[in-house]
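Attaching the record inline, Q. Sequence:
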Amino acid sequence: MKVAVLETVGSLNNIKLVDRPEPRPGPGEVLVRLRAASLNYRDLVVVEGGYGSRQKKQDLVLLSDGAGEIAEVGSGVTKWHVGDRVVGCFFPKWSGGPAAEDRVAASLGGSVDGVACEYRVFAEDALVTAPRHLNFVRGATLPCAALTAWTAVIEHGALGPGQSMLTQGTGGVSLFALQFARAAGAQVVATSSSAAKLEKLRGLGAAHVINYVETPKWGQAALDCVPGGVDLVVEIGGGGTVAESLRALRLGGSISIIGVVAGARHDLNLPVVIMKNAHLRGASVGNRDQLIAMIRAMEQHAIRPVIDRTFPLAELADALAHLKSGRHVGKICVEM
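Structure, as predicted:
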């Protein structure tokens, strides 16, 4: 079978497509024929070795998010059958409950081998049923980006009708957050860098859009859109954007910190945090039970992930370069 391997950390040039024997499932395991996978910003960090001791640094099978069908079941497996369409869990050992070290120690495409391959063995509890209304490519976008957005907007943010949220950019998490907020009945303010991207955000249901290049003080612009401030900010930029996010936030509002694409560090203005009674909380994916709940909601509301572009597995390095360029709107995927 074909496998995309990061031979050693440091560069996209270190990604090689190699041949390996097709694996076999053991007791309590299933073999999945992977049909598609999707990329996350986290994959770029992995390639650069940015997770330090928390990641495998040599001969790592990349990517965390994949979808496919059961090709073979091991002894003792009763919940899956050959032909079942499935999606893998980002944290294969986190079935439910709060995050704990033993539950999040193993992450696909990070500390353990991922899904950039034609076949992979999974524990039977490390999979969920794929959404009925989505094909393999769209189903492959759910384990990391979609579930992180769901955690931020629904699990932590508890966003509902009459409330408001601000999103940043047109990456996967931001677009999923917009879609989930709209399905929950909330109003969305969205920022991006170009007229074309802002138009896409309007098409997905954003009530207000702000060009952050033309309006560097976009936090104040958000206040003009939602007097008093938004209930929730889905923070993607990190150090480079959190000050404006605080400006846009209402008293007692929440900032869900997802990423650090605009910088990992910031001299936080603590008096503003205190005076705004702001809640800052990190959101990093979620567990299997939450993934199941999210998929049910997506089926009920017919939510379809936005796909920017799809590459063949052999061009994974090019796909990651496209992700790094920031030109994408939605998810970048690979097909096996």
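The mean pLDDT is 95. The chain has two domains: 2-141+305-335, 146-282.

More tomorrow.
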